[in-house]
Each structure stands twice: as structure tokens, then as C-alpha cells.
Design brief:
The protein is α/β, with parallel strands linked by helices. It has one domain: Phosphoglycerate mutase-like (Rossmann fold, 3-Layer(aba) Sandwich), CATH 3.40.50.1240. The protein contains five helices and six strands; from the N terminus they run βαβααβαβαββ. It has a six-stranded mixed sheet with strand order 3-2-4-1-5-6, sandwiched between helices. Helix 1 packs across helix 2 and helix 4 crosses helix 5. It starts with a strand and ends in a 7-residue tail after the last strand.
Length: 154
């Protein structure tokens, strides 16, 4: 068995309430629609995490909740350090994860895009509710594929 990493950005959030702190912003209608669609696609491709590390923000927690349509109650850990994390913070969050299997980190940009670049050497665009699969190859990570909601067919 090899090690895989799914880097996912939270679904689209709402800016409707200007009094909310950034950490407390909920998903908007598009986010509520896209999160289950992405989990369906992840499932159909076999991108099933053994562990999900999720930011403590409301929008990431809601994204995870909306993905339970396909994943149920997979093991997850709320990691406050993922919120507004630098690439070094994100790498540190991954240090104590399993050496085999699939881990998902559900967080934010620009950290998610920078993490993918740092691990694989590839710059990709990761809009909201998008996910990228990286596979460990010896001591390197290869970018296998990216799923973006706008590229899915209904």
C-alpha cells in the first residue's frame, strides 16, 4: 500500500453577513450544492480518505458535513492550525499522519495551492470545493488529478 494525499479547498462560502468574523462564515447555496457533488465524484474515483484533517472554520466544517452523503462518518480531526496556515504549518499538520493509506486535508487558499506546489512542483488552480490527489512516489509526491465542480457533468 502507498500513501495518498487529497488536498481539498472548502466549498463556496457566503459573504452575506458583514458582521461575521471570517472564521464563522457559512457556506452559500453553491457551496451547499457543490460539496455533496464533489464527495460523489471522489467516491466514484476511489479517492476515499482514511483520515480527514479539517480546519476549524465554519465553512470547512460544513463542507465536511455536506460530504457525509457519500462518506458517512469517516475518521476526522479538527485542526485549528489549518485555518490561515502557511505551507509550513500545513506540512507540520501532516507530519503525524499515517505512513500508508489516504489522508485528506480540508482547508483554504492560498495554503492549499501552495501545499500542492511545494509537494509536487505543480502549480494548479484550486477553486472552492476542488480537490487534488497526490500520490507518494519514494520521497516525492506526484499530482495525479484534480476535480473541480465546474468541470463535473450533471
Amino acid at each position: 500500500m502507498y500513501r495518498r494525499l487529497i488536498v481539498m479547498r472548502h466549498a463556496k462560502s457566503s459573504w452575506k453577513d458583514p458582521h461575521l468574523e471570517d472564521h464563522d462564515r457559512p457556506l452559500n447555496k453553491r457551496g451547499l450544492r457543490d460539496a455533496p457533488r464533489i464527495s460523489d465524484e471522489l467516491y466514484s474515483r476511489g479517492w476515499i480518505p482514511d483520515l480527514i484533517l479539517v480546519s476549524s472554520s465554519r465553512r470547512t466544517m460544513q463542507t465536511l458535513e455536506m460530504m457525509k452523503n457519500r462518506f458517512g462518518d469517516l475518521p476526522s480531526e479538527v485542526r485549528p492550525g489549518i485555518y490561515h496556515a502557511s505551507v509550513y504549518d500545513l506540512i507540520r499538520e501532516l507530519e503525524d499522519t499515517t505512513q500508508k493509506g489516504t489522508t485528506m486535508i480540508l482547508g483554504h487558499n492560498p495554503g492549499s495551492e501552495i501545499l500542492i506546489n511545494r509537494l509536487s512542483g505543480n502549480w494548479i488552480r484550486l477553486p472552492t470545493a476542488s480537490a487534488a490527489l497526490l500520490v507518494e512516489n519514494e520521497s516525492n509526491w506526484d499530482l495525479e488529478d484534480v476535480i473541480r465542480p465546474k468541470e463535473l457533468h450533471d
